[in-house]
Design a protein that fits this description.
rod-shaped; Photosynthetic Reaction Center, Chain H, domain 2; 9% helix; mainly beta; seven-stranded mixed beta sheet; 263 residues
């Protein structure tokens, strides 16, 4: 059941959600059937920073927890055929949109546009297209810049083993043989004559020395951990934005203040 105009009058600015309750975008405008005056389309801002507008049939839309729930999934809405949110949907645009949503479209349907105020009377006539009202709307593009978070890389701690040569000087002791000679005296003559007068003998002395012994042990030296900090830098972006200009032709044309209106 299609909601009435009074029921959807306050839907502008509300969030549109899909059949699963996922947010699609914010409702920017409500387009009415130009013949019946009934609501027919929702213009929903989608994409990053609401830079795109997708049109969704308003039929079967309903309020749900302060949002407007649509009987379509989020991706189907985002994949809808492009249509300019220029104040009016042509029959060709409506036909393409209805087929995208699996609905029948009749050529008897009129174009759709947002609700208009009372007719103030048209001064002159439009020469570039269908007649509208007595004013032009001058628009310009505004650049909106935001940020999005993405993964820029990964860091990890890795421990590996290296080998180096260490030299240390250590004092070591060793024993060596020395000869001591003493003359024969009355005190030692007895020891000198003890034994045969002439003989062959051997005397053995055991010598000792120190040798270097090494031992290695593992000693903890420090602990290392990773942390994160956020730094801020400035980046400059440059984009072209378009601006409309309105000028008057004719000898008697005078510059005046622009009046609200639409294309």
């Amino acid at each position: 059941m299609t909601p009435t105009e009074s029921a959807v009058a306050e839907w502008r600015g509300r969030n549109a959600v899909d059949s699963d309750g996922d947010k699609i975008g914010a409702i920017d405008e409500i387009y009415m059937d130009t013949e019946t005056g009934k609501p027919e389309w929702l213009a929903v801002k989608t994409g990053m920073l609401g830079s795109n507008v997708s049109f969704v049939p308003i039929a079967e839309a309903r309020e749900s927890d302060g949002n407007v729930q649509l009987p379509y999934d989020k991706q189907q809405v985002k994949d809808a055929p492009n249509a300019e949110a220029d104040g009016e949907l042509s029959q060709e645009e409506e036909d393409s949109l209805y087929r995208h949503y699996g609905l029948d479209y009749s050529e008897a349907r009129s174009d759709s546009r947002p609700p208009q105020g009372q007719d103030r009377g048209t001064v002159g006539r439009d020469t570039s297209g269908p007649s509208t009202d007595d004013a032009m709307t001058r628009s310009e593009e505004e650049l909106k810049v935001g940020t999005t978070r993405r993964e820029s890389g990964r860091a990890r701690l890795r421990k590996y083993v290296t080998t180096e040569q260490v030299e240390k000087t250590v004092p070591v002791k060793r024993e060596q043989v020395t000869l001591e000679r003493e003359p024969i005296t009355d005190a030692n003559v007895g020891d000198a004559k003890d034994g045969p007068e002439i003989s062959e003998e051997e005397h053995e002395v055991t010598l000792h020395e120190e040798e270097v012994v090494t031992e290695k042990r593992t000693v903890p030296k420090e602990r290392v951990r990773m942390g994160k900090e956020t730094v801020t830098e400035e980046q400059t972006v440059s984009e072209e934005v378009r601006q409309e200009r309105i000028e008057a032709d004719g000898a008697d044309a005078a510059e005046g203040k622009a009046k609200p209106g639409r294309r």
